[in-house]
Amino acid sequence: MENNIVKCPATLALFFLAVLIVACSGRSGKVSASSKAEKTEENKEGPARLIKMIAPEENAGFRLGDEVSMLLEPENINQQPDSIVLTFDGKHAATLKSAPWKYQVPSSSTMRTGRIPVKATAFRGGKAQVVTRFIIVYSDIPPKRCGYRIIHIYPHDKNAFTQGLFYYNGSLYEGTGQQTGSTLREVALTTGEVLRNLNLRSDLFGEGITLYKDRIYQVTWQSKVGFIYERETFRQINKIYYQSEGWGLTTMKNQIVMSDGTNVLYFFEPESFTVTSRIEVYDNEQLVGSLNELEYINGEIWANIWMTDLIARIDPASGKVIAYIDLKGILNDPDTDTKVNVLNGIAFDAEGNRIFVTGKNWPKLFEIRLIE
Length: 372
What we know:
By secondary structure, this protein is mainly beta. It folds into 2 domains: 88 residues, Immunoglobulin-like (Sandwich); 228 residues, TolB, C-terminal domain (Neuraminidase, 6 Propeller), CATH 2.120.10.30. It has 3 helices and 28 strands. The radius of gyration is 32 Å and the shape is elongated.
């Protein structure tokens, strides 16, 4: 070959022209810069694109009990998937083996409010593609609006920055907040006298409290640590830890429920204090956030909505708001700015069917009855 090239200049020119064409084409020899760029772009695309989700759209709105239509199409009509696995709210919904690539999620699957993940995983020839959307499930009813009637007024420590409250055996138990001022206390209902008081460490901001099997649980705001006390003595038994902020606490049967200032309520197993489930709270129009102090009353979770005069009555099974209680104007005290020292604190005497409410640094505590 070399001899032929040396002896035949025309052949030599044709040879180098062929090499140049091949090199520029990127089909053999060294890879050209443009071909490297193309491969880089291909790598950026990630896994093979087999399908696209037509329905539901991202953040599409539904109601509790609605059916949800899932509709998918292949990216290339000539390359149908081998199968598509559908999941709804983390649970397997269906496996589709052929077109039409659609499925109707039954109404029994939309029984909780909140953002629900909808996922499709397509398979073809050993390749897989996952497409995920989120829908929002709202309450199926407009919440009722409840008023109130004051039954009795009791004195309350104006220096108590109320964060948690519950009633037990004739006394109120109160958790207070603020840096260097957080406490756990037992308070005489009729006089407001502080019968017992336990100061938290100065670096801890106390939040919600609740009673479970003669033990008091108390959480702190941003320290992600709480405490378990013996009710009779306030002796600390143990510490508890959690991943979010701590706001309100209440006991629901054999679970402890915690708010974190968002629209999420967490359900804990009390002994290990591990999360077993959670709900997202919505009414029929929007998420209901800033959930603060909690109380479990007659099968509902009541929650102060921070910086408002409202208490939300929440269905713990679905997360929907059943009703709002509007307590605007309940404290008529010119020395208390209720825009700063807001309503916060709900306690329930189950035996006497009495409801008590107060606020941060309020001089009064109220026994109320609802007007529906």
